[in-house]
Specification:
The chain is an alpha/beta fold. Helices cover about 35% and strands about 20% of the residues.
Length: about 290
Amino acid sequence: MKSVFYSHFFILLPWILIVIIMIDMDTKKTVRRTAHFYLSHFGKPQRAPLPTIYAITPTYGRAVQKAELTRLSNTFRLVPQFHWIVVEDSSARTELVSRFLARSGLPHTHLHVPTPRRYKRPGMPRATEQRNAALGWLRLHRSPKDSGVVFFADDDNTYSVELFDEMRSTRRVSVWPVGLVGGRRYERPLVEKGRVVGWYTGWKANRPFPIDMAGFAVNLQVVLENPRALFKRLGSKPGMQESDFLKQIAKVEDLEPKADNCTRVLVWHTRTEKVNLGNEPKHWQDSVQIEV
């Protein structure tokens, strides 16, 4: 009797094992599906994508141009979700800037527009055409579906990476201090109870917005909603371009103070020292030509 039982048992054993394995596999699949359902619906919420920072940099050919752009790119590479709009004061894209941007590894747009010769005089505002060309590009290639912040990043400044974290949450127009400007160690908006109430400035305090170009950022949608907001050429004076632009899109009471209520300097108007090339030969003498 026992021999009959064991013979039947061993005949059925492989089939029993197969059934157990199949049940175990199906159970694991069910557990995984259930876990995925709960994690996707009730787990850690997905982070919204960061708004893109569009940094507009006018530039022009000079001995320190590549050095200035190199300093900027080394900072910009540390900023996530970043797009660099470089606008040359030139009738065509130069090889130097084209090569530089291609090697930078940064998402970028390379534009060019020359400043009319009649405006290239001492005492005339600079980079007007270049900044307006960048604003025109944004209005043509971005839509209300795009989130972003527009910042005017001149190539003679030095920027802390923290500055870009501060400006990324700009709802309309945000402001902060700028170091080494206006004949002072810094200039800044004065803030009370989270609102701008005045200005600490060393030059023309009666301007509508006594602020440096590096001291504010604008939400991309504000730029798109105000297609006529541009930097003025006719009638504008040096040091007034910021005010001429900002008064088209904002009021002082609407400004958003950043950098701990405008008590921290995160950008400096450093300006590279003028290069001494007094010993540069008039005719090329080196055996190779090196791009500087």
